Amino acid sequence: GAGAAGLWFLPHRAWGSLSLQQPPATPVQLEDLVAVRYEEGQQQGRRVVLGTGGFGRVELVRCRQRLFALKRIRKDRVVRTRQQEHVRTERRVLVGSRSPFIVGFFGTFRDRQYVYLLLEFCQGGELWTKLREMRCFEEPLAVFCCACVVEALEHLHGRGIVYRDLKPENLMLDQRGYVKLVDFGFAKELGRGEKTFSFCGTPEYMAPEMLRHEGHDFAVDFWMLGILAFELLVGRPPFHSADPQQIYSRILDGIFSFPAFLGEAACSLIAKLCRRRPGQRLGNTASGIRGIKKHRWFGALKWRKLSLGQLEAPTLRLIKEVRGG
């Protein structure tokens, strides 16, 4: 995960008070976007890079006093690795998303070398970075982050999209401390009752049915939610090894232990999300995603207020601490 610690060198007025998810008043052209550069420190004068990935990088840009994240995807790399479909899917998912728990999308551009996606700038940075700084999260923090993810998954699944790449690196914090899903390269549109057989995702987060090539569906997202809850609370995923093959065999065995400090409700939720048989997984039973929302680990959470953005985010102090006040 690319940290954005140096970002806090930007003058504070640059953040702007507008909601960063509102579309710009007039359409933006690629030539309207100006790269934001560090104003002081060791990187002074260099472009602010928010993240790097397999196909390119995400840079901070400004247009008419407003900040955006610009994802640059190298065309030659996409063609060479036959990932055109992933790029198209990501764009389709983003175009149709109207959820405050999914990164805002403002359009695509292209030139000879790159395809560009213009995205909401999540100024709180990567959740992954915060987790590494704190080692693990207290329960209220983890509950809030997972609840935001549940809202995002409910939106995607309602549109027939399975996400398949849940992990702290793909979760960003906005200026309010709310968590947003980013990076939809592995997302897949599925019809009712349909399964898909592609092998993708991060080893520690893969569901057993993916490893067994039995075909998988929306249930993999609930498995990954259980792994995420564990990692946020413990500081590492439950199936952990330097060797991917070792990770896969542990996932297939399905045996992991809970540290003694984990609360009973957290253990119960994780165990129900990480059932080896997809049909028995919480979220994938008759009660659907409501079954997750009603679980006692989320007992104190006011879902309606969360969906309206009216809850004070416990993650907010993480952003303030990183900014140094």
From TrEMBL:
<dbReference type="InterPro" id="IPR035014">
    <property type="entry name" value="STKc_cGK"/>
</dbReference>
<keyword id="KW-0808">Transferase</keyword>
<dbReference type="InterPro" id="IPR011009">
    <property type="entry name" value="Kinase-like_dom_sf"/>
</dbReference>
<keyword id="KW-0067">ATP-binding</keyword>
<feature type="binding site">
    <location>
        <position position="75"/>
    </location>
    <ligand>
        <name>ATP</name>
    </ligand>
</feature>
<protein>
    <submittedName>
        <fullName>KGP1 kinase</fullName>
    </submittedName>
</protein>
<dbReference type="Pfam" id="PF00069">
    <property type="entry name" value="Pkinase"/>
</dbReference>
<dbReference type="InterPro" id="IPR000719">
    <property type="entry name" value="Prot_kinase_dom"/>
</dbReference>
<keyword id="KW-0418">Kinase</keyword>
<feature type="domain" description="Protein kinase">
    <location>
        <begin position="44"/>
        <end position="298"/>
    </location>
</feature>
<dbReference type="InterPro" id="IPR017441">
    <property type="entry name" value="Protein_kinase_ATP_BS"/>
</dbReference>
<dbReference type="InterPro" id="IPR008271">
    <property type="entry name" value="Ser/Thr_kinase_AS"/>
</dbReference>
<keyword id="KW-0547">Nucleotide-binding</keyword>
<keyword id="KW-0723">Serine/threonine-protein kinase</keyword>
<dbReference type="GO" id="GO:0005524">
    <property type="term" value="F:ATP binding"/>
</dbReference>
<comment type="similarity">
    <text>Belongs to the protein kinase superfamily.</text>
</comment>
<dbReference type="GO" id="GO:0004692">
    <property type="term" value="F:cGMP-dependent protein kinase activity"/>
</dbReference>
